[in-house]
Amino acid sequence: MCPMTKILCPLILSCIVATAHADTNPFFNGYENQIGLNFGWGVDSGFLIPAPIKWVPFIMLNANYSQPTEFFRLPARKSLNITQTLGSGSSRGWHWDKYTIPIVTLSEDVILAHGEKWFFYSGLAVGMQMQQNERIGSKLLFGFKLGTGYKLSDCSNLEFFMQHYSNGNTAPENNSYAFYGLGLTYNF
Hints:
There is one protein chain. Strands 1-2-3-6-7-8-9-10 form an 8-stranded antiparallel β-barrel. A two-stranded antiparallel sheet has the order 4-5. It contains 1 helix and 10 strands, in the order αββββββββββ. The protein has one helix at residues 3-16; strands at 34-43, 55-71, 74-87, 90-91, 94-95, 102-114, 118-129, 140-151, 156-166, 177-187. Strand 8 (140-151) and strand 9 (156-166) form a beta hairpin.
């Protein structure tokens, strides 16, 4: 079985049996707007969901604005994301300082399961990096995200996530960017 199939089959199955319901949106807790700040540390891997073992000197800073929505009756959020990647030094054969590039994406995150204080979600994004490079051979980027969140209060959530960016094999070079990180959201 191909590695991608091993990842996508459980993800699709979890979407089908998800315990989320659209009568409540755990991202927003009854509010209509959300801003978020995220920090992620880079992992060098060509996999969609990389093992957090090959850390590299590459970080991401992300700010986003989100609104509630639904995806096939599951609670979701649509977001405008502005991301800055910051690289420093060399590691694993790459000069990470070359990849200090702004990225702008539109994304949708969908709640797959939740409880009273926690939620688990997955998301997809499409966007552009402002500069093409030899690591990802196009400006066009696609994103995949897995995350979990905890409600700190009605107005704020703490999230832990894995973020993957690649060009979806639309160019010969597609070594991807991947990050593990923390985020804080504020609802209003």
